[in-house]
Amino acid sequence: MADVELQPASDLSDEDVAALFTASYDGYLVPFAVDAAAVRLLTETCDLDRAASVIAVRDGQRVGLANLGLRGRDAWVGGVGVVPAERRRGIGRRLVQALHENAREQGVERVWLEVIVENSGAIALYEQLGYEHVRELEVWSLAGAAGGEANETDAAEAHAWIREHRVEREPWQRDDASLARAADARGLMVAGAAAVVRVVGGRVSVVQIAGDEAPLRQLLEAVRRLGDTVSLLNLPAGHPASTALAALGGTVDVRQHEMVLQL
After folding, report:
1. What is the value of pTM for the model shown?
2. What is residue 31's predicted lDDT score, i.e. its pLDDT?
3. Strand 203-211 to 193-200 pairing
4. Is CATH 3.20.20.70 correct for 4-108?
5. 89 by DSSP, 3-state: which?
6. What are the Cα distances from residue 244, in Å, to 157, 164, 172, 220, 230?
7. Phi-psi sector, 107: left (phi>0), alpha (psi -120 to 50), beta
8. Burial letters for 66-97: b for 16+ Cβ neighbours within 10 Å, e otherwise?
């Protein structure tokens, strides 16, 4: 391990990060690949700090990375990966510990992350480092379909309704700070439910959503007509929208543990 050097990611371009991110997640539990545009979007919407993020280098070759998002007293681990040939050598642990040190230097009090429930190795590592389980999150998908009516409105109006009626804290990627950076967000409302969505290339991403089960089903029927597929990232298990999604034929693609470390 002495010949593995940890460096800040500040000198990496979006293209560099995309290449290392993709290589470090080769063979992951779910297919994973990003390009420079995806890295830019993730960096902007999730407040990733390139200077506080870390890469691992051996013999001049980049072999791992760990991304850190910063928002005041909170930080978020936005992906930790090591290329296949360098795994099981303790590099992942060193990367995460380096993030913790960088977070402390920024005055962070809590570090959040999500980890796929089947990723037992990563879960064990995070538990050893002091992370605690908070709740279960689900990644949903729903096929697009014709039909369904909702009032399309300004995203700010729909968001204001959601803030008043939400019953759980939003996960990092769909937090109000993330939504504020989504310039192309659109709002949809029915009586008793509201959603803010993004539509890119036929794919509808539900950024935030709130309401009761029956109105949510009506709302999601309208959402699904906006594109070929609908996705909802990290919906808390048991959320009323999950019942509505299931009733419409939606599926849970990934289940994750949300975890937090008190620094």
Report:
1. 0.94
2. 83
3. antiparallel
4. no
5. coil
6. 22, 20, 23, 8, 13
7. left
8. bbbbbbeebbbbbbbbbbeebbebebbebbbe
257: which strand partners?
A: 115, 136
Cα Rg of the chain (Å, integer): 19
DSSP state of 186: E
Domain ranges of the chain: 4-108, 138-257
Phi, psi torsion values for 57, nearest 5 degrees: -130, 130
- The CATH architecture assigned to 138-257 reads 3-Layer(aba) Sandwich (3.40)
pLDDT digits (tens, 9 = 90+) for 160-189: 999 999 989 999 999 999 999 988 999 999
- Provide the residue type at 68 as one letter: L
Q: H or E segment at 258? A: strand 251-262
Q: What is the mean pLDDT of the chain?
A: 95
